[in-house]
Amino acid sequence: MRGRVNLMDIVLPGEDYPARKQCRAWLAEHPDPSPRELAESGYVAPHWPRPWGLGASALDQLVIDEELKRASVQRPQNRIAIGWAGPTIIYAGTEEQKQRYLLPLLAGEEIWCQLFSEPDSGSDLASLSTKAVRDGDEWIVTGQKIWTTFAHQAKFGILLARTDPDAPKHKGISYFICPMDAPGVKIEPIVDMTGQHAFNQVFLDEVHIPASSLVGEVNKGWPLAKVTLGNERVSLSGEGALWGDGPNAEALVDLVRRSGASVSRVLRHQLVKVWIEGEILRLLRMRQLGATLSGQQPGPEASVRKAMGDVHGKHLMDTAKDVAGAYGMLADAGPLEALKGMPGVGLLPGEGGLAWISLVWSIGYLYSCALTIGGGTTEVQHNIIAEKILGLPKDIDIHAGKT
Ligand SMILES: Cc1cc2nc3c(=O)[nH]c(=O)nc-3n(C[C@H](O)[C@H](O)[C@H](O)COP(=O)(O)OP(=O)(O)OC[C@H]3O[C@@H](n4cnc5c(N)ncnc54)[C@H](O)[C@@H]3O)c2cc1C
């Protein structure tokens, strides 16, 4: 089999389809659009309501994606902003907040980070202790956040802080937009085991933020946090096995198949197993994509895909390492490193050639440990599925000592 079995391919409408015609006409006028032009056109997040998006249907969005890809037009990269801060501001922000933040965020001009996790509040996020105290036209924020991805590059952070210490933990939290250059914000890097600096510790020492940076109502931040986390789970569910980035199972199978490498019987089984997982995830993703694009807020089913996808990412990277054999112990070595330079072996790939591939797989292997932790651990996803989908009794709240 040279081609792949597509279990669920969508045939998109052709040349005369209005969204396709409009997109092509726009691209003809803007053959090399700037990020700002793309943002203003609505093509960065077409499913968002106008004027930020195009209020596009699921089908329109897929057609637009196809047209942008065909024209080699890349959308701005601003994952936390576009993936989860933006949808929450659209959901609950004031008109002023939408006008101020959405366009620069879509254009990738202002990077955002997420100030949720704290040293003592990760899975049990609602127990967070960073506090915000109202003082005239301002809030004064004090506390510590951790694992804050992109904090060192961000202009703004979505921030959860306790505004009523006497209320039950879920009911005393508010949701803010925090300028990351405000006096009192101190950012310290954390370098992970891949050697990269992506996340940080953030110390907030009497940081004054304007009253207008509250999103939604005072003490009603928890339901908004859930909107953000639901969108985060979807955003982390793209095609690549590393939260949407990096290679997928098909890429590994393709690599082995096209290189002509022989693998042991055990490895063949392992490859087939991860490929099957990848196909199931692809189907789940399409179902979820359809629901999201047709305007539904992501529900607990996003947890099903995240729980499966994160474990799958680890399986895939483990398999790639097993294919690499002894080379799997080396930094910068990809699954087919042993074959490098061997005569008659067609080592392929696309972009960037072999070096790119090696780096992606070796970093991917180390990075895959994070998959079942970030964005809510696998155990937490299981708890959500147990309660919200399966109707099982609630998890024991170990922190409050009650169920
Ligand atoms: C790559 C990466 C990027 C991140 N980026 C950000 C970011 O930008 N912003 C941000 O705010 N946070 C970020 N995080 C933090 C992430 O959200 C937390 O690590 C995660 O929520 C888990 O919290 P914790 O690390 O405190 O672990 P803990 O909550 O202490 O969990 C420890 C272990 O106990 C288990 N556990 C805890 N409670 C339960 C329970 N009730 N039932 C069963 N098992 C349980 C967990 O599953 C886990 O195995 C990031 C994390 C990673 C790995």
SSE topology:
Layout: H1 18-29, H2 35-41, H3 58-70, H4 79-92, H5 95-106, E1 112-115, E2 131-135, E3 138-146, E4 156-162, E5 173-179, E6 185-191, E7 197-210, E8 214-215, H6 221-235, H7 249-259, H8 265-293, H9 301-324, H10 353-367, H11 378-389
Parallel strand pairs: 1-4
Antiparallel strand pairs: 2-3, 3-7, 4-5, 5-8, 6-7
Helix pairs in contact: 1-3, 4-5, 4-6, 7-8, 8-9, 9-10, 9-11
Flavin-adenine dinucleotide binds at residues 113-114, 116-117, 122-123, 147-149, 199, 370, 373-374, 376-377, 379-380, 383, 395.
Verbal overview:
By secondary structure, the chain is of the alpha+beta class. It has 3 domains: 18-70, no CATH class; 112-219, Butyryl-CoA Dehydrogenase, subunit A, domain 2 (Beta Barrel); 236-389, Butyryl-CoA Dehydrogenase, subunit A, domain 3, CATH 1.20.140. It contains 11 helices and 8 strands. It has helices at residues 18-29, 35-41, 58-70, 79-92, 95-106, 221-235, 249-259, 265-293, 301-324, 353-367, 378-389; strands at 112-115, 131-135, 138-146, 156-162, 173-179, 185-191, 197-210, 214-215. It has a 4-stranded mixed β-sheet. Strands 2-3-7-6 form a 4-stranded antiparallel β-sheet, with no helix packed on it. Helix 4 runs antiparallel to helix 5 and helix 9 packs antiparallel against helix 11. The relative contact order is 0.09. Residues 113-114, 116-117, 122-123, 147-149, 199, 370, 373-374, 376-377, 379-380, 383, 395 line the site of flavin-adenine dinucleotide.
Write out key terms for the chains shown:
binds flavin-adenine dinucleotide, disordered C terminus, 403 residues, Butyryl-CoA Dehydrogenase, subunit A, domain 2, 3 domains, 41% helix, alpha+beta, 4-stranded mixed β-sheet, disordered N terminus, globular, Butyryl-CoA Dehydrogenase, subunit A, domain 3, 4-stranded antiparallel β-sheet, 8 strands
